[in-house]
Amino acid sequence: MGSFTPIDTLEGDAQFDVYVAKPESEPRAAIIVIQEIFGVNAGIRQKCDSWAKAGYLAYAPDLFWRLEPHIELDADVPEQMEQALALIPKYNQDQGIRDVEATIKAARAALGDAGKVGLVGYCLGGRIVFMSACRTDGDAFVGYYGVGIDGLLGEQQAIGKPTMLHIPTNDGFVPADVQKIMHEGLKDNRHVTLHDYEGLDHGFAAEMGKRRVENAAQLADKRTADFFAEHLA
Length: 233
Description:
By secondary structure, the protein is of the alpha/beta class. It has helices spanning 42-53, 78-87, 93-111, 124-135, 176-186, 214-231, and strands spanning 3-8, 15-21, 30-34, 57-61, 117-122, 140-144, 163-168, 192-197. It has one domain: Rossmann fold (3-Layer(aba) Sandwich), CATH 3.40.50.1820. Helix 3 crosses helix 4 (124-135).
């Protein structure tokens, strides 16, 4: 449904590719889908296509482009999982936020000045979305099983727009003590809503593959769709 197109960095000194899926009619808003550690793979592109079918202009920036353009990995293949995990320490997340800002800028230019932009991310992308809620001017933010958010709580005072986090309670990458820190640290932030998913593991809302848990994925995705419908209207 969609295709890759280049956009400029904020500095204007380079370009990187963004997967873009367009709705058939005038877009109601834009949604930026932030990848897992597996790149802008078929699952992420499918999420963009689904948002486009729902009437949104959807973008998925290739955040690993400085490491290697168009990395696509499969979480169900052990060797590719290891390859994905090895990318994390090499990836400059602060620089990545600037690429997210550039994508927001491109989405707003496509929509017109009045258009609103939401962000949704998964795994590493869930962390990037939380960082974006603290550091960018997006209009609404949703993170699925974001990693390391406990270490970012000192930035939460900068969150000024609606933010929602989906937290599986048996997340192998976000243990129970970290989840407790997140709940305690964010409970008084009026902009942030947390949803727990009892007994589920990291990746339960993946679009395809062995990690997906259908009923829970549908529940989380409906909450996300309702959240964006309310805050991007």
